[in-house]
Design brief:
Protein name: Peroxiredoxin Bcp
CATH architecture: 3-Layer(aba) Sandwich
Distance between the termini: 45 Å
Pfam families: Redoxin
Number of domains: 1
InterPro entries: Peroxiredoxin_BCP/PrxQ, Redoxin, Thioredoxin-like_sf, Thioredoxin_domain
Strand content: 15-25%
Radius of gyration: 15 Å
Order of helices and strands: EEEHHEHEHEEEEH
Largest sheet: 5 strands, mixed
Helix content: 10-25%
CATH superfamily: Glutaredoxin
Number of helices: 5
Keywords: Antioxidant, Disulfide bond, Oxidoreductase, Peroxidase, Redox-active center
Structural class: alpha/beta
Domain Thioredoxin: 22-186
Length: 186
Amino acid sequence: MTDPAFLPANLPAPPDDGACAHLPGMRLPALSLPATDGDAVDLATLPGRTVLYVYPRTGRPDEPLPEGWDLIPGARGCTPQSCAFRDHHAELRTAGARVFGLSTQDTAYQREAVERLHLPFPLLSDADLRLAGALGLPTFGAAGETLLRRVTLILREGVVEHVFYPVFPPDRNAADVLAWLAAHPV
């Protein structure tokens, strides 16, 4: 089995294909998403700043990664990215932002990741791609599934304030977000 917490050397970097250029300034739709803490979260209604990191899928140490996963630019690194947001969570909260992760995996699958990785924030499920479709988030196909490409949004009062895309390497994303928040205080 491949350890999903490990980022191998020489992973292909995703290109900046402009797939998220339309997002800055976009208002999020009123849409409730199931969260791993049992709540339903409508990102459009949250006050202040929210960090929403969007990732393809969390792997499990006891399951193989999809075939060819490491060859898909930007696919590998969901666990290291989540762990980095976990490790920087207190600093992100101090900077005035709440944190959510979002994938197309169902809430039960995500709940296992929250427990195993000791995440202090909920993961949101967009299994039916409602939010992805409404925002025009980029996707790709792997192992017969439609998955979200990795992008991180800084939301402010339900509007996309800043976009990190492409995100690479994923384990540095939380530090990059923290640096951006420090440079752009409310």
